[in-house]
Amino acid sequence: MSPLLRRPTATTGKVHDITPATAGWRYVGFGLYRLAAGETVAEPTGATEVILVLVEGRAEIGAGESSFGELGDRMDVFEGTPPHCVYVPARSDWSATATTACTLAVCTAPATGTKPAQVIGPAGIGRVTRGKGANTRHIHPIAMEERDVAESLLVTEVFTPQGNWSSYPPHRHDEDDYPNMTYLEETYYHRLNPAQGFGLQRVWTEDGSLDETMAVQNHDVVLVPRGHHPCGAPYGYEMYYLNVMAGPIRKWRFRNHPDHDWIFQRDSAP
Q: Please, are residues 117 and 93 in contact by the beta-carbon 8 Å criterion?
């Protein structure tokens, strides 16, 4: 199995616990809890900020001295509505008590603690459609750079219809060369509908030093340390993914693969 593909370690509890150390990079962390009603989890943030994403289900969320009450109204991620999300600053802590079966994503990156704990979704999260034809996908930009809700984290979720491609044309953001490109590590948390489906994701560099093609299953995570990273959903299966990105600066600047940039240029032409 590819070292970039991380399968869930269990079916309940904390099923993903990806840290910069286990990923072999510097910035992005990703955890995932699958909780039954009544279960409580809590973590300190330490030197990282956290964005909690209620992928599905409801939970009572607290952060530091703040209690945000019961959040969540998307019971199945493929309902396609924007998620409830909470920002938690560095040097704080958070807790979640599931009030229904609940899938909770924990997105982390280094921070100093200058932002307040707050609810950052679903209010403020619109639905954006990108691409044309079999490249069409639908995005919820939870915490991209146009929303000043985090120090380092960039978080978004994407719904890819059956038979379509996403993160396409292939692009990369692996050089610290702002404003031309930003260095951003990235994780993809995948879901499929129906759940027994699969998707494909390729991660590769133009010099061939990295070239991995993976069949992703429900609840898998793919690491993108560098290179291009498109994914595709086979006919019959919708694909969802939650992206977490972070790097030296909170900007998303990328470059399309030179062999495939013509697709972007054609589709962007008036």
A: no
| The pLDDT of residue 269 is above 90 | no
Alpha carbons 69 and 18: distance in angstroms, whole number: 27
What are the residues facing 118 on neighbouring strands? 87
State the Cα–Cα distance between residues 234 and 159, nearest whole angstrom.
Answer: 13
Distance CA 152, CA 136 (A): 28
Place of tokens 């300190």: 44
Task: Give 61's Cβ-side CA count (13 Å radius).
Answer: 25
Domain ranges of the chain: 5-268
Q: Where are the alpha helices (DSSP H) in the chain?
A: 20-23, 261-268
Reported as a pLDDT band with limits 50, 70 and 90, residue 267 is: confident
**Single-letter amino acid, residue 15:** V
Mean pLDDT, the chain, whole residue set: 97
Which CATH number applies to 5-268? 2.60.120.10
